[in-house]
């Protein structure tokens, strides 16, 4: 029939693909190491796929198919991010265990992915909750431990009382559902924010915890961003802010003859310091609070209690009664404890300069402290102190009396470095990565605590340390299992206890892209040489909500692995694509908002074709039923067109001069579409193909088609469509008697030299009535006059078509061919 029955077609071709193993890359190809690595962020095993997943994987699949048709060895694997709290929560809710739940999710999601027509190499599937996978987390942890990349230390940590676990900084949200990394306030264990998973208000606790010392790499990770020009600038900027490198100085004040260091980015404002402020919990403040003698110490103690409960915010603070000496001016200034000073930033102490800093100004206003202007704008009157509103936070000229007066900020900073009490210093916002979780569903940290020997790593030959059987308890199920906990010390053989913390699941995903290369390797997590051949991942696609967690951790891991001698490469990903959001009714499409559309509600292929055609991969777009049905109609049109030709319409065998334009248009389309694929602009591919299909239809309506050119046109159309609508393309390809499967067919090439259609263009003035499905309509200045941009030797065609094909101009026909220059990002 002339109707495309997508359900039947999908089932048939899926079967053929599976039988032929078309998407599998054999070990020989892996060892050659010359291929293209196309990867989508593997999904968390939550139960079912949502439209964001579909968009993500439709992009990688299109790239993988396109590159495969270009003759490349394409590695396009898939796996499961299978550990984590939600599985545990689901287990409690459903009275099952996390493993059974996770396995059920995986079965369902794999089935959904297959039915979308995504061509994965399933022979490389990995699942992070398998002991065979997580033993390598443990092995890598031990390597990190041996090389001083692991620390075990007491720390103020973010604690989710509902999940009963510690959270990394980046897992504490501002309460709007996303870690808001643009906020200046570091979120380190300051008791603010909510759990990224459950939304419960986060608390602060002090616990002994395992850390990866990612801060050792702070400079490298920040500097490396400059060279990552295949990454969106927005992600690089988020990482830069997250690392938060601040150059400045440490200035040593004195309290009763004892030194106290402050960190500042603006040492040139030291002349205007009117108070000194300590973080709650700062050593000096704590000592004072423990004294019993004075009223001030009681107030400080009381303030500490309030701060610990999260009841001290904004400009909250308390006068300690102490004074500090400014080493540069010799002035005595009061010492406060202030909640806005963070204990783990800089030195945990600041000099307050209300005239030149917003937060200090707010604090000074609240506590009635003096404001002393010491820097004036360069263009202001020299010496003028009250002309501008305060705080004045830019650089300028020093207007404080003394040796520095009249110097520019930068020069003053320079000279201040000669002062004994001032030293150059750099601080970072980045904290070490807290990987301890007091939960069941994760990789057990392979350490043993021995009273004699302290913390001792489990020897490699005893890995994996497998999870004990799951039990329902309120606390940590690992700690509840005596059998798991009681062990012997690997060093002295005495009685010892196993560590019961499990690893943050972000450890699992920090190196999974290496495991796909040799998923069954039993002697190491990956093979060094193979990894060096395949890294960096050529194209990595995923959401920008991972800008600082996952995408920073994979960069850290890659560098750490390189320093351990396991890799040469230092960056994991060459080109990063962040897919935009699918909106529905103006809001992000999601189950929780109740505005979601299940991926299989429409034909799988219609859905993927639609999400690719709707917008540039990085752009958000709105889901509309009309646009979906347009994608559906396009499939039907192409199907009808091909089938009606193969159904016996023979066509001419002699060419006529007039056919030349079709031949050229085929070549031009190949060039244009190829270019759009190279730029990941699948929406433009679809536009090109729709126009090309329309051209073929018009050509055929106009006269008996020249068989050679027309059937070539149909084949080219089918091939160019294959990365986006692979089932349909297979069906058409077999109807056109194409050789083999289109999934393995060669990408079409132009028959004639064609001009670079992008650069060699010419402006042609014409009227709306003359315009048919020609080329880019750039700008309509007047409804009757349109500027067309066409390649030089195509301009004749514009007039040809207008004159010959269309006797009856109507405005809707030209609407359909209008293209703006948007999306040219
Ligand atoms: C005095 C000063 C004067 C500062 C001035 C700035 C401007 P940003 O602001 O993000 O670049 N600071 C230092 N340690 C801190 C801590 N533990 N908690 C809170 N704030 C702290 O970060 C650097 C500035 O943050 C530092 O420079 C310091 O304030 C403040 F006109 O010192 B500044
Ligand atoms: Zn021991």
From TrEMBL:
<dbReference type="GO" id="GO:0005737">
    <property type="term" value="C:cytoplasm"/>
</dbReference>
<dbReference type="InterPro" id="IPR014729">
    <property type="entry name" value="Rossmann-like_a/b/a_fold"/>
</dbReference>
<protein>
    <recommendedName>
        <fullName>Leucine--tRNA ligase</fullName>
        <ecNumber>6.1.1.4</ecNumber>
    </recommendedName>
</protein>
<dbReference type="Pfam" id="PF00133">
    <property type="entry name" value="tRNA-synt_1"/>
</dbReference>
<dbReference type="InterPro" id="IPR002302">
    <property type="entry name" value="Leu-tRNA-ligase"/>
</dbReference>
<dbReference type="InterPro" id="IPR001412">
    <property type="entry name" value="aa-tRNA-synth_I_CS"/>
</dbReference>
<feature type="region of interest" description="Disordered">
    <location>
        <begin position="805"/>
        <end position="825"/>
    </location>
</feature>
<keyword id="KW-0648">Protein biosynthesis</keyword>
<dbReference type="GO" id="GO:0004823">
    <property type="term" value="F:leucine-tRNA ligase activity"/>
</dbReference>
<keyword id="KW-0067">ATP-binding</keyword>
<feature type="domain" description="Methionyl/Valyl/Leucyl/Isoleucyl-tRNA synthetase anticodon-binding">
    <location>
        <begin position="659"/>
        <end position="777"/>
    </location>
</feature>
<keyword id="KW-0436">Ligase</keyword>
<dbReference type="InterPro" id="IPR009080">
    <property type="entry name" value="tRNAsynth_Ia_anticodon-bd"/>
</dbReference>
<dbReference type="InterPro" id="IPR009008">
    <property type="entry name" value="Val/Leu/Ile-tRNA-synth_edit"/>
</dbReference>
<dbReference type="Pfam" id="PF08264">
    <property type="entry name" value="Anticodon_1"/>
</dbReference>
<dbReference type="GO" id="GO:0006429">
    <property type="term" value="P:leucyl-tRNA aminoacylation"/>
</dbReference>
<dbReference type="GO" id="GO:0002161">
    <property type="term" value="F:aminoacyl-tRNA deacylase activity"/>
</dbReference>
<keyword id="KW-0547">Nucleotide-binding</keyword>
<dbReference type="InterPro" id="IPR002300">
    <property type="entry name" value="aa-tRNA-synth_Ia"/>
</dbReference>
<dbReference type="GO" id="GO:0005524">
    <property type="term" value="F:ATP binding"/>
</dbReference>
<dbReference type="InterPro" id="IPR025709">
    <property type="entry name" value="Leu_tRNA-synth_edit"/>
</dbReference>
<feature type="domain" description="Aminoacyl-tRNA synthetase class Ia">
    <location>
        <begin position="430"/>
        <end position="623"/>
    </location>
</feature>
<comment type="similarity">
    <text>Belongs to the class-I aminoacyl-tRNA synthetase family.</text>
</comment>
<dbReference type="InterPro" id="IPR013155">
    <property type="entry name" value="M/V/L/I-tRNA-synth_anticd-bd"/>
</dbReference>
<keyword id="KW-0030">Aminoacyl-tRNA synthetase</keyword>
<feature type="domain" description="Leucyl-tRNA synthetase editing">
    <location>
        <begin position="240"/>
        <end position="418"/>
    </location>
</feature>
<dbReference type="Pfam" id="PF13603">
    <property type="entry name" value="tRNA-synt_1_2"/>
</dbReference>
